[in-house]
Amino acid sequence: MFLTFVVMTGMATTPFHWGGHLSAGQSIEIQNSVGSIRAEPALGDTAEVVTEQSDLQIAVTQDKHGLTFRALHPNAADPRVRVDFTVRVPKGVRFIGRTVNGSVEANELEGDASGYTVNGNVRIRTSGESEAQTVNGSILASMGRARSGRSLKFSTVNGAITLELPKCLSAKLFGRTAHGTVVANFPLATRTQAAGQTASGVLGKGGPEVQLITVNGSIQLRRRA
Questions:
Q1: 25 and 120 in one domain?
Q2: What pLDDT was estimated at residue 80?
């Protein structure tokens, strides 16, 4: 069952604030067009979604899986119509941030986290698993696990990718860049061709595939102690 309602935030100086309970295993998703999305840990199990100012309507959809907040931009190409979100995410709740023109940032989360944009950087640091995609921007990600049976993708066209992994992670890694290099602080099989450089390797006992793909940029992989 879906429940959708639209919140009018008022004039440009009026902030938007939502707060409510979310359980571990549920998700909170932000869908934006012009503006950034920043996620940080919540205090306890109360999730919050805040904008400093906006004259846009925000549609909120709720189902058994969680909540989705969508900024209703009348003209997504107009940079003057901008809204920046701050999201406070409880432990174990999945965060998903989507925008077109703006950055997505998630810091010190304790659940799965994903960031998607077109023109902007993606920064994710979480103890869960992560995924990040952009077109014009770089990716800096750190994750704590990767579940078996689910592949994870980090991709951009114009930008570098840096991924930090825990030493205990088991996964299959594949990296490819057309104009750049793939480097790691652990052994990887690399191959350089006219079309660019690829690298692959198996961590631990293997497991889910982790893909890192860029066109114009380098790839850096790090395993932390």
A1: yes
A2: 66
